[in-house]
Write a structure and sequence with these properties.
- Strand 2 and strand 3 form a beta hairpin.
- The protein has 144 residues and is α+β, with helices and mostly antiparallel strands.
- The longest helix is centred in the N-terminal third of the chain and has 14 residues.
- Helix 1 packs antiparallel against helix 2.
- The chain is built from four helices and seven strands.
- A seven-stranded mixed sheet has the order 1-2-3-4-5-7-6.
- The radius of gyration is 14 Å and the shape is globular.
- The mean pLDDT is 94.
- Helix content is 32%, strand content 28%.
Length: 144
């Protein structure tokens, strides 16, 4: 179920984030992951967060919005393929979200977003930290 999260619970998002990154971002080195792990908590207060909790209340995924932009969507590797990402993305679209960036080197995420009605509208050679991990800019067009 999709719920809100308190700042005291933010540390519980880190293992979910890391599990998701390790499952989908094979282009990142251990050093990259460590650097991002240290930075990601700084972003949580900057976005509207929602989490997916299992029946025991454990967080299995989360999404972060800033205005019309989906800034983060991560699903624990053990919960992938269960509709959690789709549910969180649908919630975001219902809130007015219509754009996101995805790593070009993450074909699974690209295919997921395309399947959910997003189209590539641009590309940046560098990621948000200025590293050589190209980003694809996507806009929500319609369900497929």
């Amino acid at each position: 179920m999709i719920t809100t999260i308190t700042p005291q619970e933010f540390p519980a998002l880190i293992p979910v984030w890391e599990s998701a990154v390790r499952a989908t971002h094979d282009f990142l080195s251990e050093q990259d992951i460590a650097a991002l792990r240290a930075q990601i908590p700084d972003y949580f207060p900057m976005v509207t967060l929602r989490v997916w909790r299992d029946p025991q209340g454990q967080i299995q995924g989360f999404i972060g919005l800033a205005g019309e932009a989906i800034e983060m969507l991560f699903i624990d590797a053990s919960s992938r393929g269960k509709g959690i990402g789709r549910a969180l993305l649908t919630w975001a679209i219902d809130q007015g979200a219509n754009q996101l960036d995805v790593n070009e080197q993450n074909p699974q995420a690209l295919a997921f977003y395309q399947h959910c009605g997003f189209e590539v509208v641009g590309r940046s050679a560098l990621d948000g930290q200025g590293r050589p991990f190209p980003l694809l800019h996507m806009r929500y067009v319609k369900p497929r």
